[in-house]
Amino acid sequence: MTEKALRLGTRRSKLAMAQSGLVADAVSQVTGRPVELVPVTTYGDISREQLAQIGGTGVFVAALREALQRGEVDFAVHSLKDLPTTQPEDLVLAAVPEREDPRDVLVARDALKFTDLPRGARIGTGSPRRMAQLNAYARAHGLDIETVPIRGNVDTRIGFVKNGELDAVILAAAGLNRVGRSDEVTDFLSVDTILPAPGQGALAVECTAANAALAAELAALDDPHTRAAVTAERSLLAALEAGCSAPVGALADLAPLGDEQIVKEMRLRGVVGRPDGSALVQLSTTGPVPQTHEQAMALGRELATEMLAQGAAGLMGERAQ
């Protein structure tokens, strides 16, 4: 008798379905059970308002979590950067698989690089974090750009460039890689120019805490280094009391020592800025690679404390409720 298929809850977008398909294959291999995708429509998918106005990227998560809590799906896959920093007690983050490229990328007309964009270039992004850092970089380097708020899926956003409405758009490298469109990237933006969103490039596999057997099986997909990094990044975000749509960038990376690739330290970088780029607080801290959840959380809190002391709170505008 064939084992009953596991039901994986996913958003309906092409990117979400691609991400969930990758996880479904991995879960099938680990459990020996078939996995079927169950598309769920979220409020963030229906609404055309700017994300910051409707509660940030958390609006993509609520409907999936409700489907889990109602038992309509067995587990769900989220883009980790969309997850609110408080975890519901009845749900467990069973796995954080190895992270994709966390960088932001430029898709520009005429294959232009960021520094080659013409004066007055119009760059589309729906993210206050990207706007703050792009505008700050432009101010510091004498570039004349205009950031334009946009919404929509990958096709819609790249369409703004193709139809001439915008000179360029900023997207996440991970998303384009997962939908097989990385050949459209015209420039990879260094994390020294734009720090990604906390958790960018990573996926979150979530199930109910009550389903301990499934949680244990899903844990096989977990990548300890990725989990430590994103835990530190999200701890920073939480300690700043900032929501998913606040202009906060963070990246924790592991520095291998010499040829032996022995990783001893983790560096956490954080940035908060006004969307117009007129002010930024950007700091970093380095510590031993966290061995526990609490150590990773402490790294994030430590950097947040330093950033708040430098005036980060005043730059965020909307503090999370």
What does this structure look like?
The chain has 321 residues and is an alpha/beta fold. The chain has nine helices and 13 strands. The protein has helices spanning 14-31, 43-46, 62-69, 128-140, 154-162, 173-178, 212-218, 224-239, 293-309; strands spanning 6-11, 35-40, 75-79, 91-95, 104-108, 121-124, 145-148, 168-172, 187-188, 203-208, 248-257, 262-273, 280-288. The strands form three sheets. The protein has a five-stranded mixed sheet, sandwiched between helices. The chain has a five-stranded mixed sheet with strand order 7-6-8-5-9, with helices on both faces. A hairpin with a 4-residue loop joins strand 11 and strand 12. Helix 8 (224-239) runs parallel beside helix 9. The longest helix is centred in the N-terminal third of the chain and has 18 residues, at 14-31. The chain starts with 5 loop residues before the first strand and ends in a 12-residue tail after the last helix. The relative contact order is 0.15. Residues 50-55 have low confidence and may be disordered.
